[in-house]
Amino acid sequence: MAAVATCGTGAGSTGSVVAAGSKNHVTSFQRRGPRASGSDSSYSRLVSIAGTRPSVRNGQLLVSTGLPALDQLLGGGLAVGTVLLIEEDKYNIYSSLLFKYFLAEGIINGHTLLVASAKEDPADILQELPAPLLDDNFKKDFDEEACNHKTAESNIKMKIAWRYQLLPKMEQAGPVSSSRFGHYYDASKKMPQELIEASKWHGFFFPEKSSSTLNIEPCSLTHGYIKLLQFIQNIIYEEGFDGSNPQKKQKNILRIGIQNLGSPLWGDDICCTENGNSHSLTKFLYVLRGLLRTSLSACMITMPTHLIQNKAIISRVTNLSDTVVGLESFIGSERETNPLYKDYHGLIHIRQIPRLNNLIYDVSDVKDLAFKLKRKLFTIEWVQDNYLRQERNIYPPGFSYLLKQKDSAWGEGSLQHSTFLMSFLAKATAFASRLVRHSEPLEQTGSGRALQAAGPRLWRDGRRQEAPGLLVTPP
Amino acid sequence: RSFWKGSLASASSVSTTWTELREGLGKLTLLCDANTDGSFLVHHFLSFYLKANCKVCFVALIQSFSHYNIVGQKLGVSLTVARECGQLVFLEGLKSSVDVFFRAQAEPHPLQFLREANAENLQPLYEFVREALKPVDDGEAAWRCPVLLVDDLSVLLSLGMGAVAVLDFIHYCRATVCWERKGNIVALVHDSGDTEDEENNILLNGLSHQSHLILRAEGLATGFCRDVHGQLRILWRTPSQPTTQRDQSLTYQYKIQDKSVSFFAKGMSPAVL
């Protein structure tokens, strides 16, 4: 199976396409439910697309990112017509894994793929996709993983952490069927060859395309970006993802994956220069978003934001994307050796959640998320669970006795752990008893003050300050 | 049911603010958001002016028409109807960008600068606005004052325009819309905060200097909170009659709900009380 490699169509034909599209007024941004306009019929067909479901919050059609835990964090999935921007970790290990999950999910659901890269040949990327964990073999694998997890968990059934048992688990993993929304993938195995061969995909490999430098009118965009936009627009039109050219058979979703956008390999200089005159990337994103909004497609972009010198560009890029997720791996950072994070491979930051069809701007209220690549599964967990586990080791000797005593004295309750800690210290200092009763704003300063008043050097070992959950200081 | 709900004190002063805004013609209102999302203000002004029977030109650069339409319906206005009857002129930036970008050399477009390597000014956009808000003499539908609404100006910077060009654009629009036609301008600019976006700071400071009213939505300094989404500062820069209250800025905290926003004095969130 070869990638369809037609690109750079005549300007005349694309022009007429767009005119037709705009007359039709069909966008992928339509609300679920009865509407007076002529788009009802297109909607009734939308629901039947494999691997999609309508969002409960905004009625948008969602596709899975290929990682159910991430879907959940993003409000159910990635809305069709939007851009998901992944800020790469330093060595592009985990972000490329997410990228592959996204593509693999498309193959499982029979979506059309469009893979763009300046570094690797898209055909090679597809060969590296992870294998899905489907019904039977998944169950076994999952139980295995869960077992390991359970034993670890049961050992540390903490007396003090009664409150945390009530918290929702980040990820409700269970056996899956192939028709389900969102799958788990086994990072240790490769996608079966027959699945890849059966899939429909288009590859854009920049070094291949860049040779044909012909009569391009001067434009402010980098050459590679123009080519890519034309390629995407061409696919969207030819395969009828924009609704102007009705698809013959079943409607389908186009999954666009763009790797390392903004890197020097794309011929972009924002990583090299610091002056803010380069608008190529932001313009590209804007036009791409315009394309997506008017078609049945979803896009994942990974971007090496740590390379970009001009920080202003990053905030502009964030504003122009819909969803932004940052990955921060511990490899090579000082956190690698921090015992707090010994079970994790990195932190995941949900930087922006899309605002779609709603006045309310949904913000995830769980902020401290870490990821871990297990033997097979990529998991996302709330760091604080682990924090408590670690905290036992941080407590000075003899402290655990007090903790237990405190626990029994208070019985059940929903006190925050830090509040409890303060209450202990309050006894020593005899001034903080009122802090216990006060609500959150006092906690941060209050505990700090109490700690200082209590005086012992034990607390100054630095680890507490870095604990992500407890002493939250906004950046 | 009102968009602005809240405690008695805040509700009354906020509502006087709005009546002044409706009556006081020729005003430039700057909306600004820092560390939060201020688009609820844009949605409010859009529905506010449509309900007030003003002729509205909406330059929507950041979201699609259907997004604004659906939110508008929640706030009680229908953008499709308003557009059909000529009350609303809607420029959808995202869709136009595709048109402009993939189109052959052809007729001028308000967002033509997208295509040009070094566009220097926003004259086509200004001309679009001027045409859109031109007074019509046929007298069948007499709208009240014209209003220009922009969401948001920071996008123009991302699309390659300089801060000076955007300021010039607003200057021209001010001369036409505010002075000549006695209308209002409402524009949103992001406050980039500590990211050192110099162009954006020039734009923000320049507009703050010119505007009559600044509404600044800020995220809470203490971080995310479930019951308080942020605080809104209201700063009148030209008091119409000098009273003591005018000089100071007013600050309210707010919580965005499904169809409205509730305001309360600082620290007076219902969740706390």
From TrEMBL, chain A:
Pathway: tRNA modification; 5-methoxycarbonylmethyl-2-thiouridine-tRNA biosynthesis. It holds the Pfam family PAXNEB. Component of the elongator complex which is required for multiple tRNA modifications, including mcm5U (5-methoxycarbonylmethyl uridine), mcm5s2U (5-methoxycarbonylmethyl-2-thiouridine), and ncm5U (5-carbamoylmethyl uridine). The elongator complex catalyzes the formation of carboxymethyluridine in the wobble base at position 34 in tRNAs. It is found in: Cytoplasm; Nucleus. It comes from the Eukaryota. Residues 443-475 are annotated as: Disordered. Belongs to the ELP4 family. Keywords: Cytoplasm, Nucleus, tRNA processing. Its main location: cytoplasm. InterPro entries: Elongator_complex_protein_4, P-loop_NTPase. This is Elongator complex protein 4.
UniProtKB/TrEMBL annotation, chain B:
Pathway: tRNA modification; 5-methoxycarbonylmethyl-2-thiouridine-tRNA biosynthesis. InterPro entries: ELP6 (IPR018627), P-loop_NTPase (IPR027417). Transmembrane segments: none annotated. Belongs to the ELP6 family. PANTHER family: ELONGATOR COMPLEX PROTEIN 6. This is Elongator complex protein 6. The lineage of its organism: Eukaryota, Metazoa, Chordata, Craniata, Vertebrata.
